[in-house]
Amino acid sequence: MLISRREFIKATLVSLATIQIGCNFPPELNLDKDKTTVVYWIAAILQPSDKSTILTFLKSIQDHIWENISQDDITHSLNYLCKQQYLLKLSIGLTDYFSINPAKHIKLSINERLNKDRIRFFLLNCGKADKFQTVRRNCKIKVDGVPPSFEERLPIQLRVEIRGRRSQPIISSWVSLLESTLFTVSPSTTQLSPTHKSLSYPNYNFIDHIDADLSPHMTVRHILAADLGISVQLISRILANKTQYYRSFEIIRKNGNKRLIEAPRTYLKVLMRYINHHLLTGLAIHDSVHSYRQGKSFLTNAQIHVAKQYVFNLDIENYFGCINKRQVRELFSINDFTASAATLLSELCTFNDRLPQGAPTSPIISNAILFKIDQSMHRYCEKNNLCYTRYSDDITLSGNSRQSIVKAKSRLIAMIHGAGFKINDKKTRLMPYHKQQLVTGVVVNKEATPARNELRRIRAKFHQAACSSQLPYATRSQLLGYISYLSHFEKYRNSELLHKYSRIIENVSFVA
Fold it and tell me: What is the DSSP letter of 384?
């Protein structure tokens, strides 16, 4: 059964509000225990939250049970909850922000933790979607599809427990602070890593508030839990039952072979996003890498090799699958993560002892794993008047001397084998200037342009769409992806051809 986001949050809050969180409400304080309990749970799921955010959240739910809660009620309740150490407060300027106290968090019952974590992850996940929708609304042209690749991929639909209706989008103010780096902390080498940035917890020394003798690995779990505003028990449950938090399936590649995709489910995926944005941004990645990086793309990768006499391409076979948990742990260690943090993060970022293809953390980790090879080959190529780039598992060398290319090729293959990777011989080729030279699907003989057979394929797809009155909705994303792909090239950007393709999409009816 599908329910709206508002109804889901309201129903979960009603369930939480029936639990009085062990508070003793002195009669002389004139506190409404129901209102105070609701304020507590809202502060906990929106942390860090201020008074106005809590009030806005309450009004947006529009429930008669809480419609009489005023700003004064919220202030009174927050002051009491802080005094009883159920919440912690941090003042920044003239604004006070509130978060749940870990000392109380770890004492919640199973049902309390499950309900709170469910709303928290729901809002975190919606916050990501809300930001994506905002970006889409601000775009001048529609380029929200997926660019074409060498294989036709079916859209990945992760199964979630609750599906929000498009008619009731989540309100932006609910998630305005969820992915904020407002509480960025100074570098520390004793907790997680020198680049650790707290996502949502206002008090960095929160371990002092936990009345327990924690081992180093449990300390790290509490840091992640407090930063994300979730319970530490959930992280432990994910580590103990990782199979339940993944969805594995196969896709058919263009050559007919199958590729295994291991996609994390919502809870683990949100946790991985936090690791990506707040922990992995400090990993060393060489400038010659153009994959999975802001400001770089398949086109910037290809442009480096334009108008070269010789172009050599090498492809690493089973790229993610060759990276094991030990390598990931060593990567974190050499990037100054503490031993406990390196162990925990390597457990969270791997599945079946390898880097899963489909996880948000896998691309940036794979880029960092090959840093030494990228750095060494880049320096070697600079000395020998060659160009070196890497786009994920696709490595390219180019230059005007065949002999130099052959020497660099031997050196590169030896380094890749030495790192434990395998080479896909079928995709390894040396392309001279008098033949078509392809780099990440782009022809680079004289200028960076789409391959002729790719243009034909795109033209055929739009011709089929123009001749159809109704198509599956997944086809719309594919067609928009083709427009996005062509708009990368100066020759086609804002061209009449793209306007023609856009009109075709507008005239076709798409059904789910």
Answer: T
